[in-house]
Design a protein that fits this description.
The protein is built from 20 helices and 20 strands. Helices cover 35% and strands 17% of the residues. Its main location: mitochondrion.
Length: 577
């Protein structure tokens, strides 16, 4: 511990790239477009609106840009991706269009990708078994073969199958949903124009071909129905199943969990499909690079400018915003990167919205099972299943997503059932990452930052009781105890921690209910119904007020598609004026 303290002191000069930057640009009284919230989608929307010729301003309430994709120095010398912690889903065309590498985005690729250690007695003095998966297919088969030769043979075909389904839905991500009102209402000319909205759906159908039934099954069925058909070994099935529940208040045996799995494998990084990586300096590096790109195009971006309310003109359309300090800023359109609940229940005057619409907004599901714990360590964790070498250098498994309490699907199911009773899981599902293994900018030399994504924790505890500090500490201790089982000495290496339960995620990041996706990724809240059928095209009942955040199609994750789609919708509406 003393070494860690010395390390922290030696890092006093280590300046976070996400600390507040001073910009000389003053907030103007009028813009073409105002974006509420400086999360990644809002920043992306600002860049494309500015490229389209609209003078745009982004107003962020916090002192730092990025929303949930943010880096913060919570403990002196230790820099955390405080909420979102991995990059994969960011749409490649956005990455390229906005020249994010040019504007400072640097990514550390991970290989291997996933490490699942077992809690078991070693045989003949050997370490407990583990499952290590990465980009090398032959090595993957060797690892899987420790548990099932049958599964090892089936694994390549499964990956090909999953990749085929994921690639086929890419056209749907980069366009608004089908324009149902346009196709069914209005003049013949409008209906013909709306036919263009079918193009992405047709593209996906052509790509899928005979696999359309397979996609339908995957997105509607419990993921275990699919996985059980492919595999027999528990460690492999459970490891794959974690992606079907991550961030979602569901179990692998619930319908719709298959889509959550698909959502988490549809990305790519550095042209490697399905890969996830660490952003240098933390996830705030993504947001900062987007902001630099948007500013270079002429967008004005401000922190510590909290919007109090959307201004509504006499004609019932949005005409700007009023800030918390009373400042009014006029605009022709307003885009909200906040959740639909915050947008329509807190920022929009209620008398500007139809009563039936407000009732529908109240029904959007924001249930969250997630508690994020960020931990500073003074040394590298030492796993029983993969002991550290004498030189203390990180092993391949340290750069992975480390899955703990994931030896079997039943463990995931038990954790889910317990969480539904209002009790934080006593054996929670844990996804642990150590980005400082690849990114030395995050921690003092010899020290590390750890992100622990835990499930299942309810928003309210038994008896609808709010979380207390004692509850937070108790749950964190449970998490640390379980990590200690897999990596003895972990608890004694802790320098500091940051515990974010669902109510904390809501308070700090504006994530209604603590839901990391801005609304559950359930079948009733996807595509044509995200967040509601009446506003799936990013347009709200208030003319000139749009959604641009993850609560809209295609949903959560650091993807940027919602911001891109919303911006194109706004620009199309301007052309029609």
């Amino acid at each position: 511990m003393a070494a860690a303290v010395r390390g922290i002191r030696s890092c006093k000069g280590f300046i976070s790239s996400t600390r507040r930057c001073s910009h000389s640009v003053a907030l103007k009284p009028q813009y073409d477009a105002i974006i509420i919230g400086g999360g990644h989608n809002g920043l992306i929307a600002s860049a494309y609106l500015q490229k389209g010729g609209l003078k745009t301003a982004v107003l962020e309430r916090r002192h730092v840009l990025g929303g949930a994709a943010v880096s913060e120095e919570i403990i002196p010398g230790f820099h955390f991706s405080r909420a979102s912690y991995l990059l994969s889903l960011l749409r490649p065309h956005i990455y390229k269009d906005l020249e994010l590498k040019k504007y400072g985005l640097k990514v550390y690729m991970r290989d291997p990708h996933s490490f699942t250690p077992m809690l078991e007695e070693g045989v003949a003095g050997r370490a407990p078994r583990s499952l290590l998966l990465g980009a090398d297919l032959a090595k993957n088969q060797q690892e899987i073969g420790k548990f099932s030769e049958k599964d090892a043979k089936a694994f390549p075909d499964f990956l090909t199958h999953l990749e085929r389904l994921a690639c086929a839905i890419h056209p749907l991500l980069d366009a608004p949903p089908v324009d149902i009102p346009g196709l069914t209402q209005g003049s013949l000319r409008k209906r013909i124009s709306a036919l263009r909205s079918l193009k992405p759906l047709v593209k996906s159908g052509i790509k899928l071909g005979k696999n359309i039934p397979d996609l339908y099954e995957l997105i509607t069925a419990p993921v275990m129905k699919v996985l059980n058909r492919w595999f027999e070994s528990e460690p492999l099935r459970a490891t794959l199943a974690t992606d079907s529940v991550i961030g979602a208040n569901t179990s692998p045996n619930n319908p719709g969990s298959g889509y959550v799995l698909l959502h988490h494998v549809m990305g790519e990084l550095e042209k490697e499909k399905g890969a996830w990586g660490y952003v240098e300096g933390g996830m705030g590096g993504v947001s900062q690079s987007i902001a630099r790109s948007a500013r270079s195009l002429g967008a004005d971006i401000f922190t510590e400018r909290e919007v109090e309310q959307v201004l509504i003109g006499q004609d019932g359309s949005a005409r700007g915003v009023v800030l918390k300090d009373g400042t009014e800023v006029s605009s022709k359109v307003v885009l909200s990167n906040a959740t639909p609940y915050i947008t329509f229940k807190q920022l929009t005057p209620q008398d500007a919205l139809p009563e039936a619409f407000i009732t529908a907004v109240d029904q959007i599901d924001y249930t969250s099972p997630v508690t994020k714990i960020n931990v500073a360590l003074d040394r590298l964790p030492n796993f029983l299943a993969a002991p550290n070498t004498r030189d203390g250098k990180p092993g391949p498994h340290h750069q992975c997503s480390i899955h703990l309490n994931c030896e079997s699907v039943e463990l995931l199911e038990e954790a889910y059932r317990e969480g539904q009773l209002g009790r934080p899981s006593s054996r929670p599902m844990l996804e642990m990452t150590i980005p400082s293994v690849l990114d030395p900018t995050l921690a003092p030399r010899g020290c590390h930052v750890v992100s622990i994504f835990t499930q299942f924790t309810p928003y309210l505890l038994e008896g609808r009781r709010a979380w207390t500090n004692e509850d937070r500490e108790r749950f964190a201790e449970t998490v640390f105890d379980w990590i200690e089982h897999y990596a003895p000495g972990f608890k004694s290496s802790i320098v500091g921690k940051d515990i974010l339960t669902p109510p904390d995620l809501e308070k700090v990041f504006g994530l209604t209910g603590g839901n990391i996706f801005h609304g559950s990724m359930s079948l009733d809240q996807l595509y044509l119904a995200r967040p509601l059928p009446s506003i799936a095209d990013y347009r709200s009942p208030v003319k000139g007020l749009y959604l641009c955040g993850s609560g809209s199609h295609p949903g959560g994750g650091v993807m940027g598609a919602a911001g891109w789609n919303s911006a194109l919708t706004v620009l199309a509406d301007f052309k029609r004026r």
